[in-house]
Design a protein that fits this description.
- This protein has 301 residues and is α+β, with helices and mostly antiparallel strands.
- The chain is 23% helix and 31% strand.
- It is built from 6 helices and 14 strands.
C-alpha cells in the first residue's frame, strides 16, 4: 500500500468514526422527538409503540436515562410540572425499596444542550431556579405534608439496582394524597408485582399515568405542581401461565386499574383494558382513537 492510499484509508476510517459518533449522538436520549429507537427507550414500550391519542402538543417525551443507559419512557407536562405517564418493562422483584438515593431531575427539559442523563439535584437550592420553570424541584414537595411523591414507574417493579435508582427522578413522580399513596396505591402495586412475578412468563410492559384536575401545589404564590385527580395503570404480558387459576388467568394478557387520588373513596378498581380506556376518555384530553397498548396487547399471530 502506498503512503497516499494508506493516508486515504486512515482518513476514511477517521471520517467513519466521526460519522458514527454523530449518528450515536443523534439518538442520545433525554428529551426526544419520538421513542423510535432502542437508545430512545423504544424497548420500554409494547411493540415499540407509545400510547396514542393524546391531543396536547405541549408534552415532552423523555427517554429516562441513567448512567448512559435508557431505563424507561415518560411523557411529561412542563407546564403542570408532572409526568402524564411513564412506560416501563416490569422486572421480577422482591418488592424491596431503595430509599437511600438522592432525587434527580431532567437537565434537558431546561436546556437541550445539557446532559441526556438524569442528574441528582445540586446541593445549592439557588441552582434549582435554573430549571424550575420546566419541571418540579425538591422545594415543591418540601412543605406539603398531605402529599407523598408517588412514582409512576415504582422502584418495587424493578430489580437491577441502577434501574431502581433511575425511578427516583421527579419527572417520574406526581403528588399523591398520603392516605392513597400508603394505602390503596401501594397495595395495588404489590398485587401487580406478585401477579406478574408468578404468572407472566415473558416480558411485561406497564404504562402508569394520571388524569389532571384543578388542584395544584403552590409555592411563593405560584402554581407549581398539578395534583392528579385519578391514577391509572395497565400491564401487557402476552406470554403467561395458561394453567393459572381462573381468577388470575382472565386478567391476562392485559388488564388495567384506576383509583381516586384522595383520602376517601380511593380504592383501586381493576377493570379490562377497554373499560379503563373508556373511563379515561371522559377525563383526559384524548381523541376517540386513544389506545394504551398497540393492538390492545393482542399479539400478531
Amino acid at each position: 500500500m502506498t503512503p497516499t492510499s494508506a493516508n486515504r484509508v486512515v482518513s476514511l476510517a477517521a471520517i467513519m468514526i466521526v460519522l458514527t459518533s454523530v449518528v450515536l449522538q443523534g439518538v442520545q436520549a433525554g428529551v426526544v422527538s419520538d421513542f423510535n429507537h432502542a437508545e430512545r427507550c423504544k424497548d420500554s414500550l409494547y411493540m415499540g409503540t407509545p400510547p396514542r391519542g393524546y391531543l396536547s402538543n405541549a408534552f415532552k417525551k423523555i427517554c429516562q436515562r441513567y448512567e448512559d443507559k435508557p431505563r424507561y419512557a415518560t411523557v411529561y407536562d412542563p407546564r403542570r410540572h408532572i409526568p402524564i405517564y411513564s412506560a416501563y418493562t416490569f422486572k421480577k422483584s422482591d418488592g424491596e425499596k431503595k430509599v437511600d438515593f438522592p432525587w434527580m431531575f431532567e437537565p434537558q427539559l431546561a436546556s437541550e444542550k445539557s446532559s441526556s442523563n438524569m442528574e441528582p439535584f445540586p446541593q445549592s437550592t439557588s441552582m434549582h431556579m435554573n430549571f424550575e420553570d420546566t419541571q418540579a424541584v425538591l422545594e415543591d414537595y418540601a412543605d406539603v405534608v398531605q402529599y407523598e411523591r408517588g412514582q409512576l414507574n415504582p422502584d418495587e417493579h424493578q430489580a437491577d439496582p441502577m434501574d431502581k435508582v433511575s425511578t427516583y427522578s421527579l419527572t417520574n413522580v406526581v403528588p399523591q394524597i398520603r392516605e392513597f399513596n400508603l394505602g390503596p396505591w401501594a397495595e395495588h402495586q404489590d398485587i401487580i408485582r406478585k401477579r406478574l412475578n408468578n404468572y407472566c412468563r415473558g416480558k411485561a410492559f406497564v404504562v402508569t399515568g394520571v388524569t389532571t384536575s384543578g388542584h395544584t401545589i403552590r409555592r411563593s404564590n405560584m402554581d407549581r405542581v398539578a395534583v392528579p385527580e385519578y391514577m391509572w395503570s395497565a400491564y401487557c404480558c402476552t406470554e403467561f401461565d395458561q394453567n393459572a387459576p381462573y381468577f388470575v388467568r382472565y386478567k391476562f394478557p392485559v388488564f388495567g386499574a384506576y383509583g381516586l387520588n384522595d383520602r376517601v373513596n380511593n380504592q383501586m378498581v381493576e377493570v379490562p383494558l377497554k373499560n379503563l380506556e373508556k373511563f379515561l376518555k371522559g377525563r383526559m384530553a384524548v381523541d376517540k382513537n386513544f389506545q394504551i397498548f398497540y393492538n390492545d396487547c393482542v399479539p400478531d399471530n
